[in-house]
Amino acid sequence: MDKKYFDYMVPVVYASDNKYAPYMYISIKSLISHSNPDTHYQIYILYTNLSIKNQKRLMELAQRNISITCINIRDYMKNIELKGSGHLSVATCYRLFIAELFKQYPKILYIDSDTVVMDDIDKLYCKSLNGKTVGAVHDVVCTFLVEHYKEAVNMDVKNGFNAGILLIDTEKFSENNIKEKCIKLLEEDSKRDRRRFFYMDQDVLNLTLQGDVFFIESSWNFQWQYLWRLYTIPEQYRKEYLKNAQYPQIIHYAGDKKPWEKPDLDMADIFWEIARDTTYYEEILYANLDK
Question: Distance between CA 102 and CA 170 in Å, rounded?
C-alpha cells in the first residue's frame, strides 16, 4: 500500500493467541467494514503464541487503507511470571506493553479480541484525553462488581473502567511507569492461592490509574453480558445501559459466556452474521460443538 495517499493514520492494537485468533479476525473484519476509505488504519497484533497460518490469514485482511502487522512479544514476557485467571489468559496483559512498543504514536487505541466494531473507530481515536493517561468506558454498575471493586481495588465501582477498549497516551503511560506498577502487582497476585485481581490487568490498571482516566461514552464499549442479567444492575443505572444497547458503537462480548458458545443469547447474531462470511466459520463451529 502506498501511504502517500493518506494524510492521517489511526493506530490500533489487538492482542491474542491461537485460541482467540478466529474471534480477533472477526473483530478486525468488522472494524474494516466500518472504516473510512480515505483514512489509513494501522493494525498491530501482539502475540507470543500465534501460528504462521493464523498470522497469514489475519494479514490477508489488509487492503489499500488497512495495514496489519503481527508482533511477537515473547522477549518482553520471558522474565515475567504471570498466571491466567478464570477465563482470562496471560495474553490479556499484553496491552500493558503498548506504550513501550509504540512510542512513535502520541496516542494509540487498544481493542479486545472479543468485540464487534459497529462504527468508524476514528471517531473514538480522535477524542481528546483532556490531559489524562487513558480514555476508557465506565464499568457497569452491578451487584457483583460493587463488591469486587471494593475488595480488590479499594474503590467505588462508579469510578472504575472496563479495560477492553483503551485510548492510551503513550508518553504519560510510560512516564508514570504504569506497565511496571501493573506487572509487579500481577506477579505478586499470581503467587496467591486466592487471587485478588480476578480481572487481572483490568484490576491493576484501575488501581494504578485512579483519577487519571478520561471517561468515554459507554456506547464505545457496550458489555453484552448484562442483557440477560439486568436484575443485577440497580434501577437508576438500568435505563442508561438499555439506551446504549440500542446503538452500540463497539459490542464487547465480555464475561464468561461468548457468542460462539451461546448463539442463542442477545446480540450473538451480530457476531455470527460476520463469522459466516469468514475463512474461520467452520473452525469456529467445530471448536464449539460441545459447548
Answer: 7
Instruction: Report the chain's mean pLDDT, rounded to a whole number.
Output: 90
Q: Are 114 and 23 in contact (CB under 8 A)?
A: yes
Q: Is the pLDDT of residue 87 over 70?
A: no
Q: CB atoms < 10 A from the CB of 84, how many?
A: 14
Separation between Cα atoms, residue 70 and residue 67, nearest integer Å: 10
How far is residue 66's CA from residue 277's CA, in Å, rounded to a whole number?
A: 19
- The confidence score (pLDDT) of residue 5 equals 54
**Residue 107 pLDDT:** 97
Whether residue 44 contacts residue 69, with contact meaning beta carbons closer than 8 Å, is answered with yes
Q: Measured between alpha carbons, how far is residue 63 from residues 29, 60, 179, 280 in Å?
A: 11, 8, 33, 19
Q: Give me the amino acid identity at 34.
A: H
Residue with cell string 488504519:
41
Q: What is the pLDDT of residues 18-32, one digit of tens each?
A: 999 999 999 999 999
| 3-class SS letters over 92-160 | HHHHHHHHHHCCCCCEEEEECCCEEECCCCHHHHCCCCCCCCEEEEECCCCHHHHHHHHHHHCCCHHHC
pLDDT band at 82 (very low <50, low <70, confident <90, very high): low
- To the nearest whole percent, how much of the chain has pLDDT over 70? 91
pLDDT at 1: 42
SS3 state at 44? strand
**Nearest Cα residue to 5 out of 86, 84, 67:** 67
Q: At what angle do helices 268-275 and 21-33 cross, to 10 degrees?
A: 90
